[in-house]
Design brief:
single chain; 425 residues; alpha+beta; Helix Hairpins; BirA Bifunctional Protein, domain 2; 2 domains; eight-stranded mixed beta sheet; 12 helices; 38% helix
Amino acid sequence: MLDLKFIRENPDAVREAIRVKNVALNLGDLLQRDRDLVALKQRVEAMQTERNANAKLVPRASPEERPALIQRGKDLGEELKALEPELRGAEDALRQLLLRVPNIPLPSVPVGKDDEDNVELRREGTLPSFDFTPLDQVEILEKQGWADFERVARVSGSRSYLLKGEAALLEMAVLMFAMDFLAQRGFTPLSTTALVRRETLVNSGHFPGDEESVYKLGDDDLLLAGTAEVPINSLYAGEQLSYEQLPLTFAGLSAAFRREAGSAGRDVRGLIRVHEFRKVEQYVLCEASQEEGLKWFDKLLANAEGILQALELPYRVLQNCTGDMGAGKVLMYDLETWVPSEAKYRETHSCSYLGDWQARRTGLRYRDEAGKLQYAHTLNNTGIASPRILVPLLENHQQRDGTVRVPAALRPYLGGRAVLGQPVR
């Protein structure tokens, strides 16, 4: 959410953000509703002032004047009471529009329509060279007996997954490695829930706009979040932190759920795009300074790259264009990891800086060194998401005999094993 005063004073900048981020919002309608609400509040304030002045006249009025003054006070009270629903409705209507106003992207962000317009910044690592015909993720899993897609589909429907044996241990190893990696860099580990109230998704900026992607538990008025960012962002909702408490840095491990509405027919094979998964999310709440925010953006990105490098996976860094960065973000990079069977990079990490856009929705404030209340800046980035990361991990490290080499960084989490699986070729 942007500051309303900023919107009033910078309508052209906001209109441009709406345009380049492809947001369905009429800023003229919002500004008119704002003017109407200001006029309504002025009318209410004028009536309240008159009622208060009228009440002071009653004790000093003559017997002849008093009945009219009393009646006027009653009339004003009834009029004000009648205006209450109109005022609340106008305030709510304006807030709903404000929730849709996108953040202003940094000048360095490329303008584009969708992910096709993202800009590759660099590539890291060496692509594997196989002296045999490599298998894809599903073939590796099935030949090793590490998955059962048919049976789990009968239990949970399509886009479910079930890992068995060493693959299940590998998934847990990857998650624990990511948690340890981030903890060693000062991030507080959290094991958090995916069950959230609707307002937490509003606070994080996923609502309004992303409702179709979220599973809803109607009987309990709860929803299932698609990332630990959602609950972590609301942990300090409405609180006033001290300057000394900042920055807050978390590594949140949680289940994650996404309906993937509208993605039918895309990436349905194996582990690429499943409805339920596990994720380690980096989250930072820092002081209201772009310089500080960009410093943390670089740190989050370096953490994600460090994890991929430790897993010995080739990847590339992309800068997201305006049409692919989300409404609340001022800067966003994706990391895409190489998938040999498809001869392409696939997105495994997203690094986002949101300025104070999220904090204004959530009420995340702190007192700066001068004692003034400020809205904090927030950032988030994937630490690791499984099972998607297992796709490049299995494919890049497969060996001629069908086994999978374990990167050195993961071996302590797998009892020292350097290889998983049995020869099957």
